[in-house]
Here is the input.
Amino acid sequence: MKKHPLVLVVTCALVNDSSQVLFAQRPEDKFMAGLWELPGGKIEPNETPEEALVRELYEELGLIIKTDSLTPLVFASHSYDTFHLLMPLYVCRQFEGTPMPKEGQVLKWLSSGDFAHYPMPTADIPLLRFLHALLA
Here is the structure.
């Protein structure tokens, strides 16, 4: 069996006061364009998942988040054709600022009943049941 490189990506369920979760639509020039995902990104060398989220959520959305506002929930492990993805999911209910799309993505706050109406990457789909339970 051919081994693929391991890619470490961290993601976050930002939850607002209405118990909605922020999703971003991948821009047309990116891998898996048009699919909806939770914000986050790759973990850089010598960076913790929490540090990566603080950095990524600032770079992508202009949000200021403290690491102690991040609570780990679950992780996804999924093999794509050319790499294997390992993706911890954190929850954050406390953040400063209003999410602004800084990388050309479309943003949308979704209630858990809306998740099924938005196409998502295969690796993200198993995470949805944990988000449903969290928001119930």
Remarks:
- The radius of gyration is 14 Å.
